[in-house]
Amino acid sequence: MPIRKATGVELRRSGFGIFARTEVVVGGRAIARLSRRDLRRIEDGIAIEGAAAVTDDLDRTLWRTEDGYYWDDDGLDAEAVALLAWDRLRRQDARVERLRKIRASEEAVVGARRERIPEDVRLFVWTRDEGRCVRCGAEEDLQFDHVIPVARGGGNAPENIQVLCGPCNRAKSDQIAR
Ligand SMILES: [Zn+2]
């Protein structure tokens, strides 16, 4: 891992005018103090090279990029850090996009399975439940509901299907989601 995201980093400013100072605090521990010139150097570095060294801490360097702070313990230069940070974001975007596609296709599969309650099962359940919501007895806005949701492995057997009205079905979904 050439660079890694630095967490818990903050610049703590105190004082005014010539007494103003900025401390680099990592996880509650002040590791360096920055002058105004340092701050300007960091700002310029980010603008020009995409990354700027904030300070050294033991064997590692704390870098700042537009995307946040990074640690480097390989003695990289600003260009390398900027590139690695950019690559890291790019790969993260690609991973998110891939996960989004996987989830969408899994939801499509679940959706397809959900629609396929066989006609004879529907008829059986409808008769068994007397054409009413099994929870409140409503006779309108009725739906076939999976007692154990398809997403959680519930199937289309009659024991797992029941008649619910819309409001009861939504109330049940809310309970499961919680
Ligand atoms: Zn109901």
Characterise the protein shown here.
- 42% of the residues lie in helices and 28% in strands.
- A four-stranded antiparallel sheet has the order 1-7-6-5.
- The radius of gyration is 29 Å and the shape is elongated.
- The protein has helices at 36-49, 78-115, 119-128, 166-177; strands spanning 3-5, 9-14, 21-26, 29-34, 51-57, 60-65, 68-72, 142-146, 161-165.
- The protein contains four helices and nine strands, in the order ββββαβββααββα.
- It has 178 residues and is of the alpha+beta class.
- Zinc ion (ZN) binds at residues 133, 135-136, 138, 164-165, 167-168.
Layout of strands and helices, then pairs:
Layout: E1 3-5, E2 9-14, E3 21-26, E4 29-34, H1 36-49, E5 51-57, E6 60-65, E7 68-72, H2 78-115, H3 119-128, E8 142-146, E9 161-165, H4 166-177
Antiparallel strand pairs: 1-7, 2-3, 3-4, 5-6, 6-7, 8-9
The structure holds zinc ion.
Zinc ion binds next to strand 9 and helix 4.
From the structure above, extract its key features.
178 residues; alpha+beta; 9 strands; 42% helix; binds zinc ion
**H/I helix tally:** 4
Low-confidence stretches: none
Assign a percent range to the helix content.
Answer: 40-55%
> What characteristic shape results from the CA principal axes?
elongated
- N- and C-termini, Cα separation: 38 Å
Report the strand count: 9
Widest sheet: strand ordering: 1-7-6-5
Q: State the secondary-structure class.
A: alpha+beta
For the biggest sheet, the summary is:
4 strands, antiparallel
Using only C-alpha atoms, the radius of gyration works out to: 29 Å
Which ions, cofactors or small ligands are bound in this entry? Answer: zinc ion
User: Total domains, how many?
Assistant: 2
Mean pLDDT across all amino acids: 90
How much of the sequence is in beta strands? 25-35%
What is the N-to-C succession of helices and strands?
Answer: EEEEHEEEHHEEH
